[in-house]
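Supplementary Text 2. Reproducibility record for the structural model of the 334-residue chain.

All settings were left at their defaults, and a single model was retained for analysis rather than an ensemble. We include the record here because the model underlies the residue-level annotations in Supplementary Table 4.
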Amino acid sequence: MRLRLAWLIFSLLALTAPFAFWMRYELASPYYGPASETFVDIPHGAGTNEIAAALVAGGVLRHKLPFTLVVRWNRLGRHLRAGEYRFVAPARPAQIVQRLVQGDVFFRTLTIPEGLTARETIALMARNGFGKESDLLELVGRVDWIADLDRHATSLEGYLFPETYRFSRHAAPEEMLKTMVAQFRQRTLSMLAADRRPAGWTIPEIVTLASMIEKEAKIKDERQLVASVLVNRLRIKMPLACDATIIYALKQAGTYDGNLHKSDMRIASPYNTYLHPGLPPGPIANPGIESLQAALAPAASDFFYYVSRNDGTHFFSKDLQSHLLAVARFQKHR
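Retained model, structure tokens:
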């Protein structure tokens, strides 16, 4: 009887020892099969076996079993996060499990600076591989996305919020632009919900004013002062005479060469604020949060003019005579 028991124990050890040795080796040995980077997409709702199979197929794991044992031993099956993961180097099964638990999903980063027009935003996206320019330009006309905000809009100009975004490699152009519009809603409408909108001003008017502030003011401390000049002029029905709107009209016409000429002030465009009183018919750029805040709360001033000092700042004047002196002082050598 004792001989049989000893033989049974020996047989079990003989069978399990190689497996234990193999398992110990697999758990301790980093592995990576592909010659370069690889991506593995973990779908929502995938089980541990399915995830392990995807990792093996991607060359990230040599075998499924060590991965599944780590997951089940630590009861992490419900904590593995879906998404696309990027792998570039050998790793142990436990390290891969940890990445999936942390949700270290791969995203591409895209930064949209404040003050770009919709066309410039599209060109930036296309240059950085975030879609074809023709496809993106077509989507700029999807004004139905903002119909509740601006029923007279002719494009998404002003509503593509400048921000740093993270998109997956498979994000469609429509998804990316919708995300920018959604960010505008989240950041801007939360300010408006605080009952900060000036009496009588609509959302499109606030966005249009903010876009002009964005293009005219280069430093944060001047945004509210620039806003006050524009609002003061609107109050007495004085032409805004804003160079940024002329530049926008020239860009839309494809004739802007980087310089403004006196003849440009006579361009036949509804965006010519030298000829047409009031705000232009729509935003001239995509304003950032600081310009939107300035449009909602302009400084209290009696300034009606400003001129560039050629260093990013402006000189503000209360009357035309002071303004002309400032122009002579700061612009005569331009």
